[in-house]
Amino acid sequence: MPFSRTREDIATARHRDPAARSGLEVWLTYSGVHAVWGYRLAHRLWVWRWYLAARSVSQFVRFLTGVEIHPGAVIGRRFFIDHGMGVVIGETAEIGDDVMLYHGVTLGGTVGVREKRHPTLGDGVVVGTGASILGPVTIGAHSVVGAQAVVLVDAPEGSLLTGIPATVRSRTPHTPDFYI
User: Fold this and answer.
1) pLDDT at residue 164, as a whole number
2) Is pLDDT above 70 for 160?
3) What is the pLDDT of residues 59-89, one digit of tens each?
4) Of 1.10.357.10, 2.160.10.10, 2.60.40.650, 2.40.50.320, which CATH number belongs to 2-170?
5) What region does 21 belong to: left with phi over 0, alpha with psi -120 to 50, or beta?
């Protein structure tokens, strides 16, 4: 299973990034892919309740890649982080399958209590560069969050979110799919 998931991650990167020339290049040089692999190890330790070890792995991966994914987050398959640097994913974040984040994205919390405090992203969501999605909001499947948007409210499936604070609109047939 670990090798099939690794092959799937490499195939996802090659599908999502037109600059990827080979699987070997992705395996050796893609920090977003490396961050996901590190997250999987840290998450497994977290599930086993080895919290200190999980956080230590997470922080080491952050040091290496510039991507901070809390080991308590739940992430689906074929998740891709393009360019990676500066991405932060909080402890109670939930990310569906086929989600893509660009660099500088924050999936952050707004309260300091032990409850659901980070976003939930549905399947096929794309989040643009520098966007911040804050609090226990839900972004519906196949939505697009524009670059630098600050999202503080829920959005239904098939939404386009842009601005500060973000406004929610329905995607039209003319809205690009951004590799969805």
Assistant:
1) 92
2) yes
3) 999 999 999 999 999 999 999 999 889 999 9
4) 2.160.10.10
5) alpha
What span, in angstroms and rounded, lies between the C-alpha atoms of 59 and 39? Answer: 10
Nearest Cα neighbor of 176 from 153, 146, 154 is: 146
The runs of H, that is alpha helices, within the chain are 2-16, 23-29, 31-47, 51-65
- pLDDT at position 173 is 59
Question: Please, what's the b/e burial string for 84-95 (b: 16 or more CB within 10 A of its CB; e: otherwise)?
Answer: beebbbbbbbbb
Domain residue limits, the chain? 2-170
112, 122 in Cβ contact below 8 A?
no
Burial of 100 (0-12, 13-18, 19+ CB in 10 A): buried
CB contact at 8 A, 74 and 58: no
| Residue range 117-146: mean pLDDT, rounded | 96
Judge residue 48's burial from the number of C-beta atoms within 10 Å of its C-beta, 0-12 exposed, 13-18 middle, 19 or more buried. exposed
Residue 172 DSSP code: P
pLDDT of residue 180: 45
